[in-house]
Structure formats: structure tokens, C-alpha cells
Recover the amino acids of this structure.
């Protein structure tokens, strides 16, 4: 993973629904598998929510979107969902449980619901270009 040209803080908020049929620990593990350094907890009885900071939190996603040729999809989602210094994207929860970061465009693509990753960074353009450069 190459170092990004970013000096401002990068903050991630990660959350996923915990369905009645799911083990909350498995949902927490799924999030931890794909967002490095994130230690989510179950809140409100039905949501796993965690925070992480820095580019190291994005390391697994950085590596896996390249190996799966998903950079175009992730870039489009990051740009389409942008609002000021924030953006977000979805990951497939079942794939994350197996340690695989699969970017999805619609929450319906993950039958048990997606993992939502929100990113806040003052240098969002530079972060997007580092994470998923234009091809």
C-alpha cells in the first residue's frame, strides 16, 4: 500500500444492522475483518457501530478492490455519495464475514443488509484518488 499525500485526519464510521437471526459477534467480526483497527460494538440492540481513523483503516479495502478489479465501482460510489467532506459506500456483510471486501452498489445486494462505511476527510479528493485512482 503506497502512502497517500494526505495530511488532514481521516475518520471512518462503520455500521451494520444486526438481524434477529444473526450472532452479534459475527457481525462485529465481519466489520473488523474489512476495516482495520475498527472495534465496533452493538448499540440500540440492533446495530453494530464502530469508528476507525487513518489510512491504515482502509488498508484491506485498498488491497482488495485492486485484486478484484472493483476500483471503478468504488470510485463511482465515493463520488456519487459525496456531500462536502464526507462520502460513503456499502460492503457485502456475508463476504466481510469471510474477510473479503466486496463493494456493492445497492443494499439489496447483501441479503442480510450491507456494512455502511462513511468517510470524513478535509482532503477527500486526494483520499479518493489514492484509494481508487482514475484509470
Amino acid at each position: 500500500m503506497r502512502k497517500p499525500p494526505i495530511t488532514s485526519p481521516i475518520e471512518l464510521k462503520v455500521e451494520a444492522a444486526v438481524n434477529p437471526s444473526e450472532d452479534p459477534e459475527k457481525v462485529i467480526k465481519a466489520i473488523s475483518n474489512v476495516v482495520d483497527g475498527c472495534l465496533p460494538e452493538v448499540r440500540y440492540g440492533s446495530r453494530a457501530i464502530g469508528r476507525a481513523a487513518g489510512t491504515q483503516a482502509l488498508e484491506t479495502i485498498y488491497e482488495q478492490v485492486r485484486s478484484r478489479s472493483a476500483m471503478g465501482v468504488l470510485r463511482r460510489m465515493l463520488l456519487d455519495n459525496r456531500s462536502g467532506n464526507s462520502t460513503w459506500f456499502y460492503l457485502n456483510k456475508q463476504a466481510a464475514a469471510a474477510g473479503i471486501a466486496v463493494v456493492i452498489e445497492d443494499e439489496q445486494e447483501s441479503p442480510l443488509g450491507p456494512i455502511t462505511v462513511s468517510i470524513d476527510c478535509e482532503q477527500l479528493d486526494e483520499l479518493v484518488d489514492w484509494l481508487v485512482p482514475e484509470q
